[in-house]
Structure formats: C-alpha cells, structure tokens
Amino acid sequence: MNNATIYMRNSRGVVSMPEDNLFLKFTAEIFMDGTVNVPSLLLKSYKKMGLNETELVLLLHLWSYQQLGPQQYPTPQELSALMTVDNTRIQSLLAGLMEKKIISIERLYDPAQKKWIDRFSFSGLFDKLMEHWALLKAQEMENASSQEGRLPAEVAQELFRAFEEEFGRLLSPFESHQILEWCYEDKHLPELVLEALRKASLRGIKNMKYIDSILKDWQKNNVRTVKEVEEYEKQFQIRQQLRKKETKAPAVKEEIKRKIEKYKDVYMS
User: Fold this and answer.
1) What phi and psi values does residue 49 have, to the nearest 5 degrees?
2) Is 2 strand, coil or helix?
3) 23-45 b/e with 16+ CB inside 10 Å = b?
4) DSSP the chain
5) Closest CA to 160 of 135, 184, 137
6) I want to staple 106 with a disulfide (CB 3.0 to 4.6 A). Which of 82, 120, 121, 265 is the partner?
7) Cα-based angle 111, 32, 84 (whole degrees, multiple of 5)
8) Which of 205, 207, 208, 231 is nearest to 218 (CA)?
C-alpha cells in the first residue's frame, strides 16, 4: 500500500502522487492551517450551561477566529458562510449568547492598526466554566469524603447562586474556592455561611474577606449554628449596653464633680 499511486485531476489535467507522500502533505497542511484548542470541560458542560448544539458550533467558530486571527470580530455573513444557518439566525444566536452572558463585545486599541477595534470576549464563558468546574470538584470531594454532613453539589450550587445574587455579579474562581473551603476545611455548615453573607449584606459590606472574618469570629467563640448565632448576637448586644453604661457613669460623676468645684465658692460663702 505504501507504494500505491494516487491519481488526481486538476485544471491542467491528471497528476499522480505516491500515497505516502500525499498523506504526509495532507497532515502537514492540516496543522499548518492551524488547530483550535477546545477545553473538554466545555464539551461536557455546554448542555448544563443552557446551550444547544447550534450555539456550541457558533461559539467554536468564534473561538477559532480568536485563536487563529487576525480577524477577531467576524460578521454574521462570514459566520453564516461556515454554518447551515442564515445571517438572521446568526444574529439571533449571537444575541442569545450575549443574553446568557457567554460572550460580550469589548473595544480595544490596536497599536498595529492605530485604531480602536471590536472583538468578542469570552470572559463570561470562562466564569461559567469555572462555576461548573467548582461544582465538579465539590462532587468529587463529596464522593471521596466518608464523613457525615458532606456537601452535595446541589448545595454548593445554591451557595454560589446566593452569593452571586447578593454581589450582583458572577463569582471569581478564588471566591468559589473560598466558599468550598469554608464548608470543607473550616467545617462551617452551609446555612452558617449564608447567615454570614446575610450579616455582611445588612452592614453594607459585600466582600469575601469580611464574611471570612465573621465566620472566624463565630468559630473562635464556638458558634456553630444559626440558632447559636442569634444567642451570640443577643449576648453581644447586652455586653455592648453594659459597656456604654460603665463608660457613661464615670463621665456623669466627673461632670457632677466639675460643677461642684465650679460653684464651691458660692456654696461656701
């Protein structure tokens, strides 16, 4: 077979080429034409992200333009030429991907062209992939753990969603990892983490560092449940009121003493 000859027709007639040479030429030109790297996580998660196969293929074409360049903002006409859907459908699909916060359009300055250009951004896609990655990790940790009170993936997803709703944005990879760490390493119950989030929000402070300080304070004082938080807060308020009274009493005594000294001469005369 290696010595077989392949006959091909071109505009100048029939030409022949040994089969092994043709195979080498074919493979070389495939890789020279460029390859697109696609995370396997995207192929595993696109359905859970609310994408169908048409949207996935469109997304892969956009990704291809991004990786292979130099055009990073293809028109609906250019995309339609690569797919089996028309321009109108492409525009609708692009709008849907933006509505789902999978892609967005960003404006950048190109020093080579000396002008501002538009391009598709995949930051939303990576945020969603990170969320699904965190859920997979939570599932793995659940399967590997033999302890009681394990954290199911559904509970982890509810925690992520609660934080995103409160923050008004998607969580960063660090923030997703921090939530899992609170539950697995620090052994906080999910409801306690949500209570810390609520306390921070009521105080108008919405960041992970502040929530972490609340949880550390509860852990230091052996507060493990929401009911214990209520009792701890109640006792804290009582202690605060006592401190105010203790602080106020010397001040009142000092004021009385000052007035007595002021009018002592009058009283003594």
Assistant:
1) -85, 0
2) coil
3) eeeeeeeeeeeeeeeeeeebeeb
4) -TT-EEEEEETTEEEEEEHHHHHHHHHHHHHHT------HHHHHHTTTTT--HHHHHHHHHHHHHHHH-S--S--HHHHHTTSSS-HHHHHHHHHHHHHTTS-EEEEEEETTTTEEEEEEE-HHHHHHHHHHHHHHHHHHHHHH--SSS---HHHHHHHHHHHHHHHTSPPPHHHHHHHHHHHHTS---HHHHHHHHHHHHHTT---HHHHHHHHHHHHHTT--SHHHHHHHHHHHHHHHHHHHHHHHHHHHHHHHHHHHHHTHHHHH-
5) 135
6) 121
7) 85
8) 231
Amino acid symbol at 74: P
Side-chain-side CA neighbours of 16 within 13 Å: the count stands at 4
CB-side neighbour CA atoms (13 Å) of 150: 14
Nearest CA to 50 among 99, 89, 100, 103?
A: 100
Report residue 241 as tokens.
Answer: 């009121």
Q: What is the pLDDT of residues 13-62, one digit of tens each?
A: 544 555 556 666 766 666 566 778 888 999 999 998 999 999 999 999 99
Mean pLDDT over 101-123 rounds to 88
Identify the pLDDT of residue 90: 96
Helix (H, G, I), strand (E, B) or coil at 222: coil
Alpha-carbon distance of 75 to 62, in angstroms, equals 10
Please tell me the total number of residues recorded for the chain in this structure. 269
% of residues, the chain, pLDDT over 90:
40
User: What CA–CA distance (Å, rounded) separates 39 from 46?
Assistant: 11
Query: Do 65 and 117 touch, CB atoms closer than 8 A?
Result: no
